[in-house]
Amino acid sequence: MRERICTVFPLLTGVLVGALLLAGPGLSPRTAHAQYATDSLHFELTDVFALEYAADPQIHPSGESVVYVRTSMNRMTDRRESQLWLVNADGRGHRPVTDPGIDASSPRWSPSGDRIAYVSSTEEEGSEIYVRWMASGETARITQLDASPGRLVWSPDGSHLAFSMMKEEPSRPFARMPAPPEGADWAPGARVIDDVLYRSDGAGYMKDGYRQVFIVPDEGGTPRQVTSGPYDHGGAIDWMPDGSALILSADRSEDAPYDPLDTELHRVDLQTGDITALTRRKGPDENPAVSPDGSRIAYTGFDDAYQGYQITRLHVYDLESGEKEVLTGEFDRDVQNPTWSADGETIYVQYDDEGTTRIGAVSEDGNIREITSNVGGTTLGRPYASGSFSVAANGRIAFTHVGPHHPSDVAVTQGRGVRRLTQLTQDLSSRVRWGAVEEITYTTADGTEIEGWIVRPPDFDASREYPLLLEIHGGPYANYGPRFSAEMQLYAAAGYVVLYTNPRGSTSYGEAFGNAIHRNYPGPDYDDLMAGVDAVVDRGGIDTDRLYVTGGSGGGVLTAWIIGQTDRFRAAVVAKPVINWYSFVLTSDMYPFFTRYWFSGPPWEHLDEYMEHSPISLVGNVTTPTMLLTGEKDYRTPMSETEQYYQALQLEQVETVMVRIPGASHGIAARPSHLMAKIAHILEWFDRHGARGN
To answer: Does 460 have pLDDT greater than 70?
Structure first.
């Protein structure tokens, strides 16, 4: 068997994780970025190397400082680099914890706050767990592992660390081959696959084995495996306060590969090795967080109704009585990352509301009080929801803070205002002019109110007319918001008025709004997007002969659907799309999910349902010049979808070009050169079709 995919909510977001370089004022981990600067007042392609973001902020137990992951891209290697930095809660003392050039991630304070455990990776040693003693600055590697560790968490007394790791279980060869002669150069052996899930976007073909949970002493030693069996244990882990057991989320059923959303909470007794299921229902039970006194477990999940979109709610499990309570049953928003206050009276959660990510405090009676907003900024390409937070014993919260003109910085709050501790893009912002971002709301023909945002060129002149670019988010169950986006800013800098919206199907507006496209996608979201274009045109300043449309993943689906319905757009770029739902569900890496949650069943039983919403069915209507753009290692919306559409358009003699990004998976922009290539090709295609007024 092969490792099961750990992420069970397979959004087609195509999130562009650009993690690029700029240091805070006077505190650069390296100064080479200065030579990249240009005299241009506009944001340019090469400026992606002058971007940087903060992630995974972990506040000291006392609330006095925050350690976080500072991520950048190396211009010479075209790779992401991550380093740990520390900043005091008053914004002073901003300093590196780990050396540049050695990737570091997942920082976690020991319960007493005297040490930081983290994962560091090198080409020679792979990924290992390290511990740094903060008083002396000494660092020790405490593991020698066969695979990369994840889900790092300290025991309550600081004597051990728990983590999950892939445990390989190589299978026997399917067929016996004769040995090659000495010195012979035979072809690689055959790959035999008999598992339900055998490849994963971004990771490729899976190894034989499963993720298991281990514990290791804080001073090093041989990790002890505490879970076993043909099951993946890759979910969140927490300790019981007395250190006697772990609480974790996993699906330990025989049907696990066919039930991608069915997980339960389990208790792992560290003395006996017994694993006991605490929850039993159809649906996910995840993200366990044990209360300070060990009497309750907060977790997230829902009763599975096999809908495309389902609200994730906060639950509490009473360990003594076995009773379970839904705390946010009346709150029509998804919650995540439950975190207890030190006194056990409050549970902090993160949630998206109308395109903005917020942190809230949930009381014992289920009431939710907003603590702060504008969380996110770790997805640089497009303005998707992201980010995280942590809470100190005194109630101070550290979180990733985002704005329309800066990616994530570290900020803190105690509910009385926000202190931004870092300004990682200050150098770039001091020399470029960003496009202004304005919220817009409009009403569709059937009375539905839709929220969106307009990005204008930095030198916008109200007396001129500009080309309009409609950019559509993926998912489709995801949301855009007033967050930094390298792509939107690059389009605006190139002279476009950019419109991005949250049509029906988007998250953060409630379950009914999200499920308006359940088994009806594309559907009313098309009307919402067209109404948005009309609303912007009605405001004036738009050249209606220069309308353009693009989107990736779910946005690619809608772009292809749009040009099959209307010829109002002068050119289109369909990025990493689904063109034929029938072929998609049988080639995507998460096919057990899509056939069950997005459709009524397998395609051979519901052919009409699959084809009714497939853009390939409308290809005969298309006259719009169309570029297709996809990563060659995309296993979420495979290249075969793009090839189908390209060849269909060629047969229809529609002007078309196919752009293939070598080595790129669904995210495309894991490397900054891929992000630049994506934008450069889109802008060139639109330029060739009149965007600059020719």
So the answer is: yes
